[in-house]
Amino acid sequence: MTTPRVLFLCTHNSARSQMAEAFLRALAGQRFEVASAGTEVTRVHPLAIQTMQEVGIDMAGHTSKSLDPFLDQPWDYVITVCDSANERCPLFPHPTKRLHWSFDDPSQATGSDEDRLETFRRVRNQIHARLRQWLENLEEPAL
Fold first, then answer.
1. What is the CATH number for 88?
2. 15 is a catalytic site residue
3. Is 143 within the bounds of a domain?
4. Residue 14 lies in a domain
5. Number of folded domains that form the chain
């Protein structure tokens, strides 16, 4: 039996998809092969790294990656975590299950440093909750 492969996709691969990748690794260990990518490449947002560190997950070594090298690979799940990536997501040549989970872009948050940090925390917590729910549903036996 092969390990299921999951690709998280957002626009810049700077926050949401990076957090989802890191959370799935932390929650499911070796049960999945997981990666993240963006339709555009930027950098991993420092507040994404900081807020994940607050929950004990180190993303310091993560880098923003383009979707292009992942297109020809087989993925069991491609999960878009922003509306823009969902609209721009190309067709993958191998059979895959596409899921769309829309989260606000924390990197677009405005206000004080504390306001921006709170936005990252809120989105982080939403991603964590959605992944836990998804994993629980995957573990239900087939009827």
1. 3.40.50.2300
2. no
3. no
4. yes
5. 1
Instruction: Record the tokens describing residue 54, joined without a space.
Output: 């607050």
Task: Determine which helix (DSSP H) or strand (DSSP E) holds 16, and give its type and residue range.
Answer: helix 16-28
Burial class (CB in 10 A: 0-12, 13-18, 19+), 79: buried
Q: What is the Cα–Cα distance from 111 to 131, expressed in whole angstroms?
A: 28
Confirm whether 10 is a catalytic residue: yes
pTM of the complete model: 0.92
- Point out the catalytic residue in the list 6, 7, 9, 10: 10
Catalytically annotated residue among 28, 55, 71, 89: 89
Question: What is the DSSP secondary structure assignment for residue 111, as one 8-state letter?
Answer: S
pLDDT tens for 19-59 read: 999 999 999 988 999 999 998 899 999 999 999 999 999 99
Q: Is 47 a catalytic residue?
A: no
Residue 88 CB coordination number (10 Å)? 14
| Parent domain of 12 | 5-138
Q: Which whole number is the average pLDDT over 117-143?
A: 87
